Amino acid sequence: MTKLSAIPSILPSTTQEKVANSKVLVVGAGGIGCEVLKNLALSGFQDIEIIDLDTIDVSNLNRQFLFRKEHVGKPKAVVARESILSYNPDINIKAYHDSVTSQDYGVNFFKRFNIILNALDNRAARSHVNRMCLAANVPLIESGTSGYSGQVELIKKGETQCYECTLKLPQKTFPGCTIRNTPSEPVHCIVWAKHLFNQLFGEDDPDQDVSPDTEDPEAKAENEHSSTESGNIKRLSTRQWSQDIDYEPAQLFTKFFHDDIKYLLTMENLWKTRKAPVPLSWEQAASHRGDAEAENNVQAIDMRIWSLSKCASVFSDTVSQLKTELKGKSFLVWDKDDKPAMDFVTAAANIRSYIFSIEQKSRFATKSIAGNIIPAIATANAMIAGLVVLHAFRVLAEEIEKCPTIFLRPKSRHSKFILAADKDLVKPNPNCYVCRANPTVHVFLNVNTMLVKEFESEVLKSYLNMVAPDVVLAGKDSIVISSEEGETEINNDKKLSEIGIVDGSILKVDDFLQNYELTITITQYEKSKPEDPSFKVVGNPEEMKAKESTNGKENGQKEAEKEESDDDLMIVDEDDNVKSDDPQEGSSSKKRKLNPVEDDICLIDV
Ligand SMILES: Nc1ncnc2c1ncn2[C@@H]1O[C@H](COP(=O)(O)OP(=O)(O)OP(=O)(O)O)[C@@H](O)[C@H]1O
Ligand SMILES: [Zn+2]
Fold first, then answer.
1. Where is the composition biased (Basic and acidic residues) (predicted)?
2. Domain ranges, ordered by start, for the chain
């Protein structure tokens, strides 16, 4: 029996019928997904499917209200289904505890739906669903939040831009010389401390060198030191040297916080317009007395700013703990939830901040910066989910012209939001490497150093978001990378040039799972600086510049700042289409491979 009574009577009767008879897929049952599912169930949708790969974590409970304490550890999709049935037992609802990128969900699976609603938190899954919906020609409503910001966007093949029509700028990174030579903000010291962790205990990454950067152009004019030296230490690997001294904390401290800083001071150009750092000896730090008061205040330990002597003792203790953890392993992986790893970064970052006269941060604040944590705001999720379902009504009523992209922006601190809408639907980008006919891209890389397996994992999968690519070298018609296991593994460790991929090569890449074909033109490129990316992907080489977004907050926030209204919510038209700081990355400006900072940002309870 169709429960039309649940359908908002404000809708025209034809739309009410369509709502009751349509089949909807919700992808993701997290913060937005739970709200969307509740809205669907309460507004008359009768046939819903949910897919989510994750299980319920205790940190989800404050905002993902379909879940309770007793559900922790259970699959989100399954529990969400049960909770929705408790609202309305007549709904036909099916749950999949699985990744939407799995081969089990091909184009025919997507074709079964009238509309698909994304409530995801990462770029790879979003891109995949985007391609599946284009291939299946099913409208997709894409949404995301990031703190108090959010966005809802309709994607309809041929009529609107797709998720990949605009270049998503990679997460903000910092120039290597700022991190290594001239930090000026706490985040620079925190990134340096994470790099230090990796140099001492993590996977080797030459881009994460922590020693003074002698190639810094600003310093070079006066600095005649050989680039084979760093500080007073010959540039043998930091890891090797640390192992040679058995991770003796005082010696490590002396190198990183005294000798390297002394060396930096010899780069005089750097300090002409900046406050110079002050080298800190192990003895000075360990016996530092000036900040004992900060230690004794009553705040929760994580909220306190640690004294310098506490930082020194935590540095020493965690170096010893991490050294023990490393035994028998080739490297450790930094994790903000791993206590010694997080304590180490807090201590090292704060010691460096002290040396550079930069504000020190509590462990709590350091964790949030180091883990790129943006708080998840239940209200923002709820507002965005409401807009998702309103858009769904309009799509089903075939009024897609009434579905411009809508942005949620914080008006000011705390409770005030504004909603800003684009004036019109944004048309597809004719150069989009996904939704245009016969898409092409140019990839700049070094064919003499990049391995076939790196090209597959970093360029095709991680950057271009393919799932199961098959690559044919044009002219030779042989498969050089196959999605079939065992077919081309023999090529994995070869350089691209060794299998005939050279400057000017054209590759035909086919991802059967995404029904997506892409032509790639290879151009030989060599890094000129160590921090340069190892490859670049460009739609049109003449337009190598990424579409610079003015910071997303400007979308609606500027409008709002002009207004003096006490309303908690304002709705304004959007004057331009400039996109944002990408709330669609949700909590997670998902890094592309080139980004040294965190991959997915985790949400924290607020
Ligand atoms: N490939 C995928 N297939 C299916 N579901 C996915 C996929 N990728 C992400 N998701 C789901 O999308 C949801 C996004 O929700 P949300 O942004 O609230 O994240 P969360 O993981 O619930 O929260 P937190 O990050 O704070 O732990 C998550 O439940 C996640 O499991
Ligand atoms: Zn597109």
1. 217-227, 542-561
2. 4-169+376-407, 176-369, 440-539
Structure tokens that stand for 283 in this block: 């003895």
Q: Map tokens 């349509």 to a residue.
A: 22
pTM for the structure as a whole: 0.70
What does DSSP assign to residue 272?
Answer: S
In this structure, the residue with its CA closest to atom 21 of ligand 1 is 30
Q: Going by CA atoms, what residue is nearest to atom 17 of ligand 1?
A: 121
Q: Which CATH class is domain 440-539?
A: alpha beta
Helix (H) or strand (E) segment spanning residue 50: strand 47-52
Whether 76 has a binding-site annotation, put simply, is yes
Residue matched to tokens 């030459």: 206
Q: What is the 533 CA–ligand 1 centroid distance (Å)?
A: 29
The average pLDDT across 259-282 equals 93
As a whole number of angstroms, the distance between CA 514 and CA 102 comes to 11
pLDDT at 298 (0 to 100): 53
- Report the mean per-residue pLDDT for the chain: 83
Q: For the chain, what's the residue count? A: 606
177 is catalytic: yes
What pLDDT score does 413 carry?
61
> What is the residue-wise DSSP string for 149-215?
EEEEEEE-TTTS--TTSSPPPPPP---HHHHHT---SHHHHHHHHHHHHHHHTS---GGG--S--TT
pLDDT digits over 365-409, tens only?
Answer: 999 899 877 778 899 999 999 999 999 999 999 999 999 999 998
Report pLDDT digits (tens) over 560-596.
333 334 445 555 554 433 334 456 554 333 322 222 2
Question: Residue 229: what pLDDT?
Answer: 44
Q: What's the rounded mean pLDDT across residues 540-561?
A: 39
Cβ–ligand 1 contact at 459 (below 6 Å): no
CATH 1.10.10.60 fits 176-369, yes or no: no
Binding residue per annotation — 33? yes
CB 233 within 8 A of CB 241: yes
Q: Which atom of ligand 1 is nearest to the CA of 601?
A: 25
**Count of C-beta atoms within a 10 Å radius of residue 543:** 11
Residue 595 Rama label (left phi>0; alpha psi -120 to 50; beta): beta
CATH number for the region 4-169+376-407 comes to: 3.40.50.720
- Is there a binding annotation on residue 125? yes
Please enumerate in sequence order all residues whose Cβ is within 8 A of that of 13, keeping only pairs 6 or more positions apart, or say none.
Answer: none
Out of 198-207, 222-231, 460-469, 472-481, which region has the weakest mean confidence (pLDDT)? 222-231
